[in-house]
């Protein structure tokens, strides 16, 4: 199917300009003024921006926590992604204890195969390290997976120790891979949780009180030092607060190569939500927890200044009913995570661009171009250029809507952004030239997403 998008304002990480875009064979084949071709379907997008398809490099779809399974699987999660303008996701294929990385990959391939409405790839989360797992990191590169994740928290489940972090970082340097880190001190969190439960304090607000900022700051600082000794590049996922970022800045000054991701929840929400009546605070139980409101604007500034590199969502959805409620008598049993993949672009546009906190070009950079460059997808993805995949989002800035759980495509019974106004409509979304959603509704009736083999940098 060939088409021409006519009259839109093209936005890349570098510039905004008016031009037509011609698409054929799934690729952008021409960009120019007054493009004509009778064989093409002409779409008038006058008055709208055209941005590259969003890339969310931090999702957890079809994740089994042991106690329950995420509300979104690859089908509903990727449908929500395209409805909101995200055309590529990278999910975490998580190694089970005693299993190999190949087994983790096979498991995730099975979960995702023939279910995805957007293009997709995986990072491998390593939870059980030994010499043969180290060797398997090479095999993952061959499978097109040059990125991994290690957890410094979730003791007894996912957490690894400093020796493993050091060895994995050395290996990643050797093979050109990148490791993302969940930075919180899991050992101390475990002590604080046990102590507070003994005092019979069980409500969701204790989630935040047992995961204080300082334990994210400590883990971030420790990671920076381990990376410095290992002389390896690192990626910090879901950074939530100013002080953790100060540790990154100090490390950068010492020459550590560190990339930072934050998420919309740390820009827009704050810890007051844990004081909501009853069990309502459970909706916001995620790790790291929401922080003091003062952090929101500081993080926006760091995005504008180029110190925060990417915005992922950490989409990890659990229904309030029956799933979050597993922790009604014990906050430590509330499954951690919240939904977000559907609303990332409209929230960033509304609360970042429309408020002049960031430019629209910077928005494209942190949500499309940089993720593509960092994770080995550029220039196939993440930009609007001749030869790139025709993953295109028509963003109409002349519409105002309210986010409501009842309208969402995400398969979950709430949204942390209920009632938030957004000053745009994700009017049309194209994945490799195929229209996959229109006005927030999925229009593609089969899962046409493909697995993306990525290269290391
Ligand atoms: O609470 C969160 N973030 N859940 C998802 C797993 C993780 O830590 O990224
Ligand atoms: Zn995490
Ligand atoms: Zn996560």
Automatic annotation (TrEMBL):
Keywords: Hydrolase, Metal-binding. Residues 49-435 form the Amidohydrolase-related domain. Belongs to the metallo-dependent hydrolases superfamily. Hydantoinase/dihydropyrimidinase family. Carbamylation allows a single lysine to coordinate two divalent metal cations. One of its GO terms (molecular function) is metal ion binding. The gene is hydA. Its EC number is 3.5.2.2. The keyword Metal-binding applies. Its cofactor is Zn(2+). The keyword Cytoplasm does not apply. This is Dihydropyrimidinase. It comes from Romboutsia weinsteinii. It comes from the Bacteria. The modification N6-carboxylysine is found at residue 149. The lineage of its organism: Bacteria, Bacillati, Bacillota, Clostridia, Peptostreptococcales. GO terms for cellular component: cytosol. It is an enzyme of class 3 (hydrolase).
